[in-house]
Amino acid sequence: MEKKHKSGFVNIVGNPNVGKSTLMNRLVGERISIITSKAQTTRHRIMGIVNTEDMQIVYSDTPGVLRPNYKLQESMLNFSESALDDADVLLYVTDVIETIDKNEEFLQQVQKEKCPILLLINKIDLTDQAKLEALVQEWKSILPQAEIIPISALSNFNIDYVKQRVAELMPESPPYFEKDALTDKPARFFVTEIIREKILLYYQKEIPYAVEVVVELFKEDDEMIHIKALIICERDSQKGIIIGHKGQALKKVGAMARKDIERFFEKKVFLEMFVKVEKDWRNRDNMLRAFGYRL
Ligand code: GDP
Ligand code: MG
Ligand code: K
Prior knowledge:
With 295 residues, this protein is α/β, with parallel strands linked by helices. It has helices at residues 20-28, 71-85, 105-111, 129-142, 159-169, 187-202, 207-210, 236-243, 248-265, 285-290, and strands spanning 6-14, 46-52, 55-61, 89-95, 117-122, 147-150, 212-220, 224-233, 268-277. Helix content is 37%, strand content 23%.
């Protein structure tokens, strides 16, 4: 007899920097979500799809939950809340570092959630047994319906067990996407994500949060991929910092990004980057829409 096909949505939620993107990449087995040590790296929802013969698991990585104090953050919060709506399994990620805020609005929404919740306590490589046990007890009282699994996404500890539990919790369903699909995001999206990651790593303070990256050209032939990317910032002073003395800063960022893009597509890449000032793009609805944020 033929085995019934299973498929479902697994949404990864939690506060910034607890390790959601690192976990997502472990679960999907490809480097599809960008990771840095700064908060707010993941602005959009990113999906990663794992296919086997009789199962399709659609993981999605969400931006960290943030209190909206300007329009961009409001839009990012929408992505997180929508992650609660369509989940078959919720992976609520916390770590051994963050202080638990029981009154947090998002946590209260999670408490009302009806789908199965795996509460993943990440970064256990940074703590000891006694502290971890105390943390487990605390979480048991906050989210009694959740199954608590201590993990280390970075050192790949207990990740196979998470995969196994997710697979067991998948409902019977035909696949939602083509079975050879890796992700729902097009190639250009990965280019902007990689460039943004390098900007986050290279520049200090407000620069990473003041910029948006747009890929204007993505042209592939047999030999190479030609990419033109635009870095949009808010002020002339920021443009100066991004470009740097004699263009050195932008050159470095471009070189780092190109290396990663080449590794991602396994192809030679010619990357051109330009910087443009668009005053207050973060507060302008039409600009945000053009960049793909849902408002
Ligand atoms: P996100 O904001 O929740 O998506 O978190 P990221 O995946 O971007 O990770 C934030 C930081 O935590 C990065 O510097 C990761 O390398 C680090 N990190 C993630 N998982 C672990 C872990 O298991 N152990 C340790 N020590 N660090 C981790
Ligand atoms: Mg992330
Ligand atoms: K992050």
